[in-house]
TrEMBL record:
Gene Ontology BP terms: bacterial-type flagellum organization; bacterial-type flagellum-dependent cell motility; chemotaxis; protein transport
Keywords, comma-separated and alphabetical: Bacterial flagellum biogenesis, Bacterial flagellum protein export, Cell membrane, Cell projection, Chemotaxis, Cilium, Flagellum, Membrane, Protein transport, Transport
Main location: membrane
UniProt protein name: Flagellar FliJ protein
UniProt keyword Transport, yes or no: yes
One GO term describing the cellular component: bacterial-type flagellum
Signal sequence extent: none
Membrane topology: Peripheral membrane protein
Domain of life: Bacteria
Amino acid sequence: MAQSRMTGIPNAAAFSHLIERAADERDNAARALANASLLRDDSRNKVEMLETYRRDYLQRMRDGMERVDGPGALAQFGAFVAKLEGAIKQQTEDYAFREQVVAKARAIVLEAERKLRSLETYVARKEAIADLKAARRESKLNDEFAQRIAMTRLAAAGDHA
C-alpha cells in the first residue's frame, strides 16, 4: 500500500497513518513471534539434552552395577536420578509454557495481519470508487464537449447553406 495514491479519499493522511501503524504493529508482532519461537526451541533442546543425559547416565549405571560400592553409592545414584527427573519435569513445563506463548504470539500476528489487510482493502475500494467517479466525470465532460463541437459544426453548416 506504500505506493497508494489515496486520491479522492476523505482523511487520506489519517488512513495512511493508520496503515503505517498497522504495518508496524504487524512487524512488531512478527518479531515477538520469532523471539518466542527461539525461546521455545531453546527450551525443547534443553529437554532433549536432559533426557539424553538421563538415558546415558542410566545406561552407564546399568553397565557398572557390579562395581557399585554398597547402599550409599546406590542412594547417591537414586538421589541424582531424582534431581535429574525434577530438572526434566521443570524444563518440560517451561517448554509447555513456551508453546503457549508461541501460540498466542501467532494469533496476535494473524490478527495484526488481518487488520492491515482490512485497512488496505478499504483504501483500495475507496480509490477504485474515486477513480470510477473521476472517469465518469471525464467521460461526461468529453461527451458534452463533443456535443458542443457537433452543435457548432451544425450551426456553421447551417450558416453556410
